[in-house]
Amino acid sequence: MTNPTEHALPANSMVESHEGDFGCTVMELRKLMELRSSDGIDQINVHYGGVMNLCSRLKTNPVEGLSGNPTDLEKRKQVFGQNFIPPKKAKTFLELVWEALQDVTLIILEIAAIISLVLSFYRPPGEENEQCGLPVSSPEDEGEAEAGWIEGAAILFSVIIVVLVTAFNDWSKEKQFRGLQSRIEKEQKFSVIRNGHIIQLPVAEIVVGDIAQIKYGDLLPADGILIQGNDLKIDESSLTGESDHVKKSLERDPMLLSGTHVMEGSGRMVVTAVGINSQTGIIFTLLGASEGEEEEKKKKGKKQGVPENRNKAKTQDGVALEIQPLNSQEGIDNEEKEKKVTKLPKKEKSVLQGKLTRLAVQIGKAGLLMSAITVLILILYFVIENFVIHRRPWLAECTPIYIQYFVKFFIIGITVLVVAVPEGLPLAVTISLAYSVKKMMKDNNLVRHLDACETMGNATAICSDKTGTLTMNRMTVVQAYIGDTHYHQIPSPDALVPKVLDLIVNGISINSAYTSKILPPEKEGGLPRQVGNKTECALLGFVTDLKQDYHAVRNEVPEEKLYKVYTFNSVRKSMSTVIEKPSGGYRMYSKGASEIILRKCNRILDKKGEVMPFKNKDRDEMVRTVIEPMASQGLRTICIAYRDFNDGEPTWDNESEILTELTCIAVVGIEDPVRPEVPEAIAKCKRAGITVRMVTGDNINTARAIATKCGIVTPGDDFLCLEGKEFNRLIRNEKGEVEQEKLDKIWPKLRVLARSSPTDKHTLVKGIIDSTVGEQRQVVAVTGDGTNDGPALKKADVGFAMGIAGTDVAKEASDIILTDDNFTSIVKAVMWGRNVYDSISKFLQFQLTVNVVAVIVAFTGACITQDSPLKAVQMLWVNLIMDTFASLALATEPPTESLLKRRPYGRNKPLISRTMMKNILGHSVYQLTVIFFLVFAGERFFDIDSGRKAPLHSPPSQHYTIIFNTFVLMQLFNEINSRKIHGERNVFAGIFRNLIFCSVVLGTFISQILIVEFGGKPFSCTKLTLSQWFWCLFIGIGELLWGQIISTIPTQSLKFLKEAGHGTTKEEITKDAEGLDEIDHAEMELRRGQILWFRGLNRIQTQIDVINTFQTGASFKGVLKRQTMGQHLDVRHVPSSSYVTVAPVTSPPATSVPAAVSSPTLGNQSGQSVP
Which PANTHER family does the annotation name (predicted)? Predict the structure, then answer.
């Protein structure tokens, strides 16, 4: 038997000897972990002689764990593998370059440049020139004509630069994302017992034979077998697709699998398989290996998916693997389950991305139209002038020269298109998001999904937990009610009867998770460290304050001696532990929310520790005099009780009968102080137009008191504080279904939801999101830390999980992880989100001004002077600096506090507001006036030769160089104007805080000087004098003054201005989104256009088929078949390329349609691909 991580060993023989050291091999353990429930137990008992025997074979101690000896750990890693699943290979830089080259505009430019290059080397004999109607070139033009190739080469060079920049950005984005992933993985730690001590170990360090502590909320990092468990329930849906929780116990089913979630209970397991040998690892490897295999199998011509092939060792990332044939029936079941699972509610993709793509598509269409018209006008003008007015014949020898002219026109047209399409947009979004994500790390926000960052800027509501987020999660017992006495400070142990004291100490020490404990402070004079569940730590602290030692009790009653444990969950809201009494019979200790436990008590201990009856009226009296006063001070009340079973063993599974007739020992009030910085953060949220709601499992009075301290509710406001039960009564109909109308009456005023279950939280979030009250759809952020918060975190627009107190399950479901669990970090996230939105708008305002001006100049210039004043290479330079560098400069503006002083934008607010439209048009007017003045009167103003109507290969003129230089400098100063989009006057405010911006502006200016002075022929530039430079600069600086004039004009008076870049309306979404799992606004926009493309293609193809059929006299059925199946066109998605392959149904050759924009997948709705 070879071993999967064989590459780590020098030879096979070594493996044998190593495995001889342990009583089982990797493959045996793998086979063992593939068994379930009773099969697994039989195999353990028959083959290994029980779990304890298996531990000794693996040379581990079930109580003490491994020794932690480095050589032993290394040996285990060599024999059984590391707990690490190799990631899929990242795309190489060359692959990304190839992807960037797929851009349609670039391809067209490349073709045009190559044609231009080829034709420039063709020298027709000189004497035909006159017949061809071209000006005769003078001798000095000969040298210039030789340099005709430069333009083509320069275009190619510019294309290469653009491609490299794009590829580099994609590469760095990918790298950043991988870095983020590995950071998330590194931060995941797990409790493992080594040498008798519980330590937190990074998941990758876990080895086979480790004894791991598992508790509620854990995501299991490896496969293992249960050694000891309390009421353990596991959610195995990630592996099996079954949503029901699976009970785990030594008698019924001890098999624990990696990647599954602990939903209840606790326990210890021995690790039996890690990394690629664990069940999750096997699935990952199958996925990874099958990708590589498909390519191999295509070469070999084998049928893919034959089970025998699965046994062959496959290599992925240099690791040889052995894959078990998966049970085919199980596979089929899983597929069916997965189909069911995917029918989740539709989640909309990022709002910003949607708005941007709609805008880009609209701009693209306009650009395409303009460039087509430009080319058409140029060609018509040329043809009419030469062949109609001058009546020249078309001579064969002149053809290459005419073609050169046509190519020149074509290049001008393409240049117009290149400048019209804002390629910098996706780049700006990427840079802005990547930059924000990086900076947000410093503000304690670990962003898992990029678009969450920008969605946060639109947030209108935050549903926050109380404990740990708004409060410090440092709990201490400050009041107690014991034996008819309400102590406002912690009583001294002498004040209590020994019997009662004993019950309190045992009731707390035994009936709390043994993972919760209090450790000495790290620094001298610091507070003791609380490890584990904070409420339990508060109670253990109470025991310590009573001068008692809980360790002694736990040593006397170790975890193995606990007879039965009912662990805490959101339904029970209590925890109970049963132990056997030395004198026979059983005692059960219970603790939990005071009103819940008191309802189950029928006796209470008095001052002397005697048992007294506890009737309903006593309970009401106690709630009124003890619990409510505690709660109104913001204390959390916990009741401690017990029950003895002396008449034989009851049925433990019948919980309702076990958890009654309790005897109340004490009620304690636990204080969890509000974080000092929270009230200020909540005030900021209110100013920013964000409603904060508190959703907590705590008592309503406690919740209201804390909400008042935080400033969520202010006295005199019209607001609601509800308990979960009351909330459900108000929003559900007789059948128990949630009614949106009823919910809509409640949520706008609701501020506190207390004693709520995770379902209530999910209902509230879903209700707010689906609500149609108000003009905007609400954007909801939710915080969560518990396993049961998963659904609400997933449903919310942005889910925040707690980095410290959060369970792995919550982190898995979230979009952003708060590394310090602090509410203020959420406010920072809002600020960054709004900043992303503003950065994109700044860039758009700048970009669109460039586009409008460049397109109009190229278009009118071409129509009037037959030559664009801005040459192709100059346009590409403008495109490069304006797109790439401006996106870098404007997208990295740091956020300011002023962002929190305005309302959220909302989902439907257009990207380009009226103010921005005013700026864009205003600056365009200034720039166009200047440029047209220079084109038509510049030569007289500067007293230089005119550059208009120059022959084909004429040298660059000073006239046109001045135009190009002025254009670039105007853009440069307009970049400074674009830093403000809300009509602020001071465009320089905070400019030195952004070093990137300053260096980009400076760098662009220096590059421009170099291009003009030394660019020569490739850039169609010639040297300028100092006075000409000063004039250009003067006109450029005029942009800043003009900006001040524009901001003086009130936007309200310009009613005719239209906004652009709207979000998608709800009606449009529902109409188009049938059958889609995720609504992507961008795809919708493209879909409409594409469906028309494909219908048109289909029609043409059908007509061709009809003609062919008649010509060949073949049967007519094939054609009809095509028409019926036309609806099932299978459009395959080539990743980020710009070609859509349409696979026709009857004719074998696939038609390739260059789409104007990179296409989304458009598979038919039935989900089957048509051959």
Answer: CATION TRANSPORTING ATPASE, PLASMA MEMBRANE CALCIUM-TRANSPORTING ATPASE 4
Q: Could you tell me the strand order of the sheet in which 1139-1143 lies?
A: 1130-1133, 1139-1143, 1151-1154
Cβ–Cβ under 8 Å, residues 676 and 623: no
Does position 178 have pLDDT exceeding 70, yes or no?
yes
Distance, in Å, from the CA atom of 350 to the CA atom of 1158, rounded to the nearest integer, reads: 18
Nearest alpha-carbon partner for 926 in 1021, 1000, 1056, 1037:
1037
CA distance 212 to 268: 6
Structure tokens at 310: 């699965």
Please say whether the beta carbons of 274 and 297 come within 8 A.
Answer: no
226 exposure class (CB count in 10 Å sphere: 0-12, 13-18, 19+): buried
Asked if 1021 and 1012 touch (Cβ cutoff 8 Å), the reply is: yes
Where does the pLDDT of residue 350 fall: very low under 50, low under 70, confident under 90, or very high at 90 and above? low
Task: Write the CA distances from 569 to 216, 465, 580, 600, integer angstroms.
Answer: 9, 17, 24, 17
Tell me which of 51-60, 230-239, 816-825 is least confident. 230-239
1089 or 1056: whose pLDDT is higher? 1056
CA–CA dist 367, 419 (Å, integer): 8
| Largest separation between any pair of C-alpha atoms in the chain | 127
The string of DSSP letters for 347-368 reads EE--HHHHHHHHHHHHHHHHHH
**Which residue type is seen at 49?**
G
Q: Active-site residue among 465, 698, 785, 815?
A: 465
Helix, strand, or coil (residue 462): strand
Phi-psi region of 63 (alpha: psi -120 to 50; beta: other; left: phi over 0): alpha
pLDDT above 70 coverage of the chain, percent: 76
931 Cβ contact list (under 8 Å, min separation 6):
853, 857, 869, 963, 966, 967
In this predicted structure, the answer to whether residue 450 has a pLDDT above a threshold of 70 is: yes
Distance CA 758, CA 219 (A): 19
Closest CA to 635 of 490, 475, 754: 475
Amino acid at the residue 1025: T
- Supply the pTM of this predicted model: 0.68
Cα 629 to Cα 230, 633, 666: the distances in Å are 36, 7, 16
What is the Cα–Cα distance from 553 to 565, expressed in whole angstroms?
Answer: 17
Residue with tokens 């000897």: 17
Answer whether 540's CB lies under 8 Å from 516's CB: yes
Task: Give the residue carrying structure tokens 């624990």.
Answer: 256
Strand partners, 732: 738
Predicted confidence at residue 1030, as pLDDT, reads: 93
How many CA atoms lie within 13 Å of 1107's alpha carbon, on the beta-carbon side? 5
For residue range 1125-1167, list pLDDT tens digits in order: 333 444 444 343 334 434 444 434 443 433 343 334 343 444 4
The residue ranges of DSSP E strands in 720-789, in sequence order, are 720-723, 750-754, 780-784
Reported confidence tier of residue 366, pLDDT bands at 50, 70, 90: confident
115: amino acid identity, one letter: I
Q: C-alpha distances in angstroms, 565 versus 307, 545, 574? A: 45, 26, 11
Residue 465 annotated to the active site? yes
Three-state SS for 130-157 is: HHCCCCCCCHHHHHHHHCCHHHHHHHHH
pLDDT of res. 289: 53
Token pair in block for residue 43: 């195999």
The pLDDT > 90 percentage for the chain reads: 17
> Would you say residue 41 has pLDDT above 90?
no
CA neighbor of 801 nearest in space, from 821, 780, 825? 821
Residue 387 pLDDT grade (very low, low, confident, very high; cuts 50, 70, 90): confident
Confirm if 358 and 912 have CB atoms less than 8 A apart: no
